Amino acid sequence: MSWTDERIDTLRKMWEGGSTASQIAEELGGVSRNAVIGKAHRLGLQSRPSPVKPNDPNAVKAEKPAPVAAAAPPVAAAPAPVEAKAPPAPKTAPAPKPVERVAAPAPAPEPEIEDEDEDEIDAAPAAAATPAAPPQPIMRSVGPGGFLRQAPGEQQAPITPAPPRRLVPAKPSPEMANKTSLLDLNDKVCKWPLGHPGEPDFHFCGDKVNPGFPYCVAHCGHAYQAQLPRRDRRPPPPLPFGGARVR
DNA sequence: CCCTGATTCGC
DNA sequence: GCGAATCAGG
Questions:
Q1: Which residue intervals are annotated with compositional bias (Low complexity) in the record (predicted)?
Q2: Which of A72, A207, A209, A219 is the right S-S partner for A192, CB 3.0 to 4.6 Å?
Q3: A11 touches strand B (CB under 7 A)
Q4: Selected residue with higher pLDDT from A91 and A192
Q5: Which of residues 33-92 of A touch strand B (CB under 7 A)?
């Protein structure tokens, strides 16, 4: 493959649009990630914070070891350290346009609790509530039964497993009449739990399963997230660069 | 390990 | 000019 104007154009647009070299390489096809990077540099397209490059030309500062008089050892090392001229002007403004990008995380699936009458989990009467941290929106994903999965940051025992409460009759209960209980599960019904174990009306979806899956079609939608091929993933900045056609 | 981008260097 | 090999941080 050669670098035709068209391909260079795509490279340039994607590169400036924030696509990674790998993505660009895949999009173009026939070239490696390295080829893309190499070409990008040859085109003069640098920038883009590199994981391995401190993008701070001013660096070196705060270098603990040498508070010595600024300049290195010039020949006529004048002992006079002071002479407060101005701190060595940073000459040309280095700031190469930091290409700021807004991290646009994929819209997390709205944590919907699907469960009729989700009764509040009355936490233990912790008298003096601990001040704790200020409430902050945390994005969680929803697992079967409406359990909120812990966000990556928080670590904490997963809520009380199954509050004893009172035992409920396994089957002959009015409210459980038409519900699918544990004993009703088989390969043909949706095993998506509704409510929480230990609660009076805990039961399972029970709908006809999506063939090949343990859940019905609807709940498969919750249980499985489509994993698109890389090439179809449009990275953060939804750049409308022209030439890219989704294959 | 995986991912990144940067750099080098033989072609 | 090209890009594989290599490097180095996350």
A1: 65-86
A2: A219
A3: no
A4: A192
A5: 33-34, 37-38, 40-41, 46-48, 50-53
